[in-house]
Structure formats: structure tokens, C-alpha cells
Amino acid sequence: VQLQASGGGLVQAGGSLRLSCAASTTLFSGDTMAWYRQAPGKQRELVAAINSGGTINSGGTTMYADSVKGRFTISRDNAKNSVYLQMNSLKPEDTAVYYCYLNRGPSHLQYWGQGTQVTVSS
User: Fold this and answer.
1) pLDDT tens digits, 67-76
2) What parts of the chain have a pLDDT lower than 50?
3) Max Cα separation, the chain?
4) Which helix (H) or strand (E) holds 18?
């Protein structure tokens, strides 16, 4: 399984970017897809996750890090085997490499994309 992430770039604070991730496999409702990010010198952290067929930790079908709630929106299109991250009101602290992640339903096999750089200038 390959995950191809795209959409990163350089944007000024307050701007927007939309990340896309295309999976090389059919996505099912039980699969969880997510975006993580890793800033220089920091650990990789969960940004947002989505599971259209069940619940994830928060009890709903989507979850967000507190730092991005109200600014970022995760969505998926199973017909296109893709997940998206709409990022609005970007801040310099959002600067990081963003990684697409897939956790397959029953097997819980995990896959990572190659990462896409997001840089927010102040």
C-alpha cells in the first residue's frame, strides 16, 4: 500500500492550504485515515483522523488536535481512495512536515505516506 501526499507549500500566516493523500488501495469504512505532523526537533503528533464507518477515540467519526480545532477540516472520499486536510487560518506554529496515515480496519496494519512540507511565514 502506498500513500501519496501532496498540497504542501509556503503560505503566509492567516492563509490556507489543502493537503491531499491518495491511497493505492481501496478504502473501506473500517479504515482510519489521519494526518500527522512533525516539526523540527519535535515528536510526530496527530493532527486529525477520520473513520467513516465507526468510532475513534473521541467517540465520533473525526477527531482533531486541540491546536487545530476550528481551523482544520479532515475529509475523505472513498470512491477516490483519498483523504484531505483543509487548513485555514494557518499559523507559524503549524509549520511541519505533514504525513498521511492509514490504519486498516480489522488487521490494524499501518501505512505512512512520504510527507509534505508546510511552511507558514509570519
Assistant:
1) 999 999 998 8
2) 54-60
3) 43
4) strand 17-23
- In whole angstroms, give the CA distance from residue 103 to residue 77: 16
Q: Which amino acid is at 60?
A: G
Cell (9 digits) for 6: 501532496
Q: So what's the pLDDT on residue 30?
A: 80
Report, in angstroms and rounded to the nearest whole number, the Rg of the chain calculated over CA atoms: 14
The neighbouring-strand residues paired with 36 are 46, 99
Three cell numbers at 40?
Answer: 523540527
- The pair phi, psi for residue 94, each rounded to 5°, is -85, -5
Cβ atoms within 10 Å, residue 24: 10
52 vs 60: CA distance, rounded Å: 9
